[in-house]
Amino acid sequence: MHELSIAGSIVEIVSDYAQEHGALQVTAVTLRLGQLSCVHQEALEFSFDLITKDTLLEGAVLKFIDVPVAVFCPSCQQQVELPGIQKFACPVCGTATADVRQGRELEIETIEITEGGPSSQVSASAARETS
Amino acid sequence: MMEPRILEVRTKVLKKNDETAREMRQQFLDAGVLVTNLVSSPGTGKTTLLRETLMRLAADGERAAAVVGDLETDNDARRLAESGVPVRQIMTHGCCHLEADMVRDHLAGWNLADLDHLFIENVGNLVCPTSWDLGESVRVALLSVTEGEDKPLKYPGLFNTSDAAVITKIDLAEPCEFDRIQALENIQSVRPEMPVLEVSAKTGDGVDEWIRFLRTQRRRLTKPACSKN
């Protein structure tokens, strides 16, 4: 159940980030999850609910953006999405390739916060600069 | 009530682990030590192969050490200590995988420059260790003939992120009706071009090739450092 460790890391990163931006509460966290990330979404939701208790993230919703696996095909010279994760070969021409370009993501994409007041207004672009 | 505001965070969840692993990898490279992370299900024979490996390397005058992850016991470390090389147990107390800082903390006091090889025996698990970089140079996924040839298809994440696969307990292949060709196909399917070694730590079959594989990996690792001189 490594999802508990992952949930712990999410809370750590999001709490710091939210506090820096004057959040009163975090209402949602959106994750980008690659198909190869080996994360079980329900297990992560369960862990997240447990571990966010008494934090800024209590009650926050976890949202997922599923990222399919994409490889670079050396024959077609292009990035192609795989229909599954059991055969690492170009679905167009069949060439086997281990050059994974996408699908290992385990990233926090965005968070939704409610703010304390005007003094805590920070634009999204300013937020990005500090990351 | 104010409307909720959306902030772009765009941060890797395991950023802290990745940073620690990156620092460790550089230290390992600087010291010329090949770090091999062994990952498999429980019961595949990581400890038995590692014990044999440590003894062979030590007998040939190569300096090896190992850290071994386990949930609650230090049985594996005691078994490995029989090889005479430095071994430390990482007891994870329920945690199903090793993380970079656990490994780092258990290396304290060892001089990396005194080592040629460092082995990390991960907690027996084919899912959870996948996402944690431990600063290793080589990740090796092991599967035994007793587990069935479809293991790579069931756990593509782990096999796909590994640099080599080792099929263990080949002395039992026949009684287990292990379909070797299918197993090799399955490994290549989830990780094309991955080197595969087939060993029996019990009979010694394939162990020479495994040791040779490790030495080749180490030579590759230290080459850039040598060419700088």
Give the arrangement of secondary structure elements.
The complex is a heterodimer of chains A (131) and B (229).
Chain A: H1 3-20, E1 23-34, H2 41-51, E2 61-67, E3 70-73, E4 78-81, E5 100-102, E6 106-115, H3 124-130
Helix pairs in contact in A: 1-2
Chain B: E1 5-12, H1 15-31, E2 34-39, H2 46-59, E3 64-70, H3 75-81, E4 87-91, H4 100-106, E5 117-121, E6 138-144, H5 151-154, H6 156-160, E7 164-168, H7 180-190, E8 196-198, H8 207-228
Parallel strand pairs in B: 2-5, 2-6, 3-4, 3-5, 6-7, 7-8
Helix pairs in contact in B: 2-3
Rg over CA atoms of chain B: 19 Å
Return the structural class of chain A. alpha+beta
Low-confidence stretches of chain B: 225-229
Number of helices of chain B: 8
* Order of neighbouring strands in the sheet with most strands of chain A: 2-1-6
The CATH topology of the domain at 3-68 and 103-116 in chain A: hypothetical protein PF0899 fold
Distance linking N and C termini of chain B: 66 Å
Structure description:
The complex is a heterodimer of chains A (131) and B (229). In chain A, β3 (70-73) and β4 form a beta hairpin. Chain A has a domain at 3-68 and 103-116: 2-Layer Sandwich (hypothetical protein PF0899 fold). Chain A contains three helices and six strands. Chain A has a three-stranded mixed sheet with strand order 2-1-6. A three-stranded antiparallel sheet of chain A has the order 4-3-5, with no helix packed on it. In chain A, α1 crosses α2 (41-51). Chain A is α+β, with helices and mostly antiparallel strands and 131 residues long. Chain A has helices spanning 3-20, 41-51, 124-130, and strands spanning 23-34, 61-67, 70-73, 78-81, 100-102, 106-115. Chain B has a single domain, classed as 3-Layer(aba) Sandwich (Rossmann fold), CATH 3.40.50.300. Chain B has a seven-stranded parallel sheet with strand order 4-3-5-2-6-7-8, sandwiched between helices. In chain B, β7, α7 and β8 (196-198) form a beta-alpha-beta unit. Chain B is globular. The relative contact order of chain B is 0.17. Chain A binds chain B through residues 1-2, 5-6, 9-10, 12-14, 17-18, 21, 27-28, 31, 36-39, 85-89, 96-98, 100, 104, 106-115, 124, 127-128, 131, and chain B through 1-2, 4-17, 95-97, 99, 127-128, 130-132, 153, 156-158, 160-161, 188-194.
